[in-house]
Design goal:
The protein has 312 residues and is mainly alpha-helical.
Length: 312
């Protein structure tokens, strides 16, 4: 039985891998914030994605698999959405408050099943969307300690970023095992390598001077932080996400990714010395409960769909 078999209740190995990716991505905020104090944001991302792609390519060299034309095209499509998301999201964060941006970007949890439904013509039950809204409410409670600021251009960009993040999640499935590659095998590792390299090249073109300055000015501490971002948040995180989407649904992946703010807060408290009150912890508990509830609903819905398909 496959790891994503709907007949398995609760968390399975795919879910655990996704939660691991959400955890390391939650921790990436602390490392990224520190690195941007020493060089430009675009330069940091150019180094991060390019080095990660080179590492995976080096690992793949021990068991090489020829890159195909369809994999190159798929990677370009995924890299385009990735670079767009990162550009809009980071600009939005710069222009608005952390509270507003953290809540608004979580709307991607809700946008993903909507976009996936439009693409696949398969809609989750209504209660799935209720669970997604519950997760968003939890995020709001989690990060609203300082209150909300007046909406501005940054908030509008974060709404766009949330939609684009959902598009990116769904596009990974479309470009790796959807109609785009129907009947043609796609190697997940090859797609990940090229996606990262293409994204890195995009950010390098955006700020070549900043990229060079980052490479030259980083000291031992900064390179350790960069290594953490590259190995865990990028190499592990991106491979897991592409693999997981091939094993399950984009909606399920997005729902599990909804725990990312929890990991960000926990790591900030434990490693960054930040404080969070009881209301914040309550928000985290609501997110976990809402996501787990949504997993159960997704399991039942997909099981019913698979049964109907086999019956026909």
């Amino acid at each position: 039985m496959s790891p994503a078999s709907p007949s398995k209740r609760g968390l399975n190995s795919v879910d655990v891998a996704i939660l691991g990716a959400a955890m390391v991505w939650g921790g990436s905020y602390l490392a990224s914030r520190e690195l941007t104090h020493f060089a430009s944001l675009w330069g940091m991302m150019a180094l991060r994605f390019t080095i990660a792609g080179a590492i995976i390519f080096a690992i793949r060299a021990f068991k090489p698999v020829k890159f195909t034309k369809i994999e190159v095209l798929a990677s370009l499509g995924i890299a385009a959405t990735l670079a767009t998301v990162m550009t809009v999201e980071t600009t939005g964060v710069y222009l608005t408050s952390a509270t507003n941006s953290g809540l608004i970007i979580s709307l991607s949890i809700l946008f993903t099943p909507i976009i996936e439904g439009l693409v696949s013509k398969f809609w989750m039950p209504r209660m799935f969307y209720v669970s997604a809204v519950g997760a968003i409410i939890g995020v709001g409670i989690l990060i609203s300690g300082n209150g909300f600021t007046q909406p501005n251009l940054g908030d509008a960009l974060m709404i766009v970023a949330a939609i684009l993040r959902a598009v990116h999640t769904v596009s990974q499935g479309f470009f790796t095992h959807g109609k785009f590659t129907k009947g043609r095998p796609v190697d997940t590792t090859n797609v990940t390598i090229m996606q990262l390299v293409f994204a890195g090249l995009f950010f390098f073109v955006l700020d070549p001077i900043g990229t060079v300055n980052a490479a030259v000015t980083y000291g031992a501490r900064e390179w350790i932080l960069m290594g953490t971002l590259v190995l865990f948040s990028t190499v592990y995180g991106f491979i897991v996400m592409l693999w997981a989407i091939r094993k399950t649904s984009a909606s399920r992946v997005a729902l599990l990714q909804g725990t990312e703010p929890i990991w960000a807060v926990v790591i900030a408290v434990v490693m960054g010395g930040e404080l969070m009150n009881a209301i914040g912890w309550l928000g985290g508990a609501i997110i976990v409960a809402a996501c787990y509830w949504g997993l159960g609903i997704e399991n039942h819905a997909r099981e019913a769909r698979n049964f109907a398909t086999k019956a026909n």
